[in-house]
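Quick one: structure for this chain?
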Amino acid sequence: MKKKIKVAVVINNRANFARIRSFLIESNKTKKIKIDLILAASSLVEKFGELEKIIKEDKLKISKKLFTIIDGDRPVTMAKSTAVEISELSNLFENSKPDYVFAIADRFETLSVAIASSYMNIPLIHLQGGEVTGSIDESVRHAISKFANIHFPATKLARKNLIRMGENPATIFNYGCPSIDLAKKITKKRKNLYDILNKYNFSNQESFNLKKINKYLVVVQHSVTTEYENTKEHIIETIKAISKIDLNCIWLWPNIDSGSDIISKQLRIFREKKLLNKVLFIKNIKPEDFLHLINNSLCIVGNSSAGIRESSFLGVPSVNIGLRQNGREKAKNVKNVGHLSEKIIEKIKFQIKNGKYKKSFIYGKGNTGKRILGKLLKYKISSTQKTLSYGK
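Got it. Here's what it folds into:
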């Protein structure tokens, strides 16, 4: 009897989980593959996402928890957290001996997954390589790609970029982004704001009658690690813009990247000053509820990749602020703007006036998880040794 393929999937943050979720659900339907689901880094920090609860609702089993985050939001803590996770994952892989390890996207913690598996001669699978953006994510993403043995880029251009980087075309499979699978699913059942949010508890929820709100913005803005010293200035300009627009707004707290505490502090200061009275702040939300939230909104504002990927499939107007997503492929629904409140307001008003855009399939059509699983079940790898393949 043929043994199951054992794949270790390391979830370091809520974005990781959203990107890989459909693959995990599909894998759970077959007896041909065994998933070792490992939670690490900010996925275990309550303020950055209650992933354990969602994972259990999906009937997925958590194999191991690794507490690897060094407290603080400075660049030095990012480096130290990565080092801690390399050590923890090395021990784990030595004992569990997976056939493959899955590295998801480009957040700083994910570099530890690539280093630990590659040094131990375990084939590395990389999801979403070949893309171009700003922040430290840009460097991390390409570094992981050079470690990886199998690539699942999300776009045609990303596949071409990997080939230009010297990766073997025979190891690169463009099946789209798995997060689009969930975006496709939620479009089949539209929800209003009350249905989406009434089950959550928020500190300032009593100020909002969710049943009467049908027009709102969604804001998700993270720090740009390579512009750490400008984080305060950047977020203040966005806050000023939102405070001057007479619309209700759903604002999600930032991720764990260095600079997150600076953003959170400024949001609290302006909230206490009563300058964000129409803003409902959300700390944690399920992936499907987040997509329902975006799909029903007038516009998504900030620098989250959701304003590029999922919003393009949903046709939701997006205002992309600053350089965090600089160079990432964008559909017509995305308008770029710098860190000036007046310009941000102009772009938001333009997008609201324009309304919904035509659906784009840059990042796939919503069947990625199943296709990745199918490829892994058939794939054969004889060696983890890599060479440049220019000209092949």
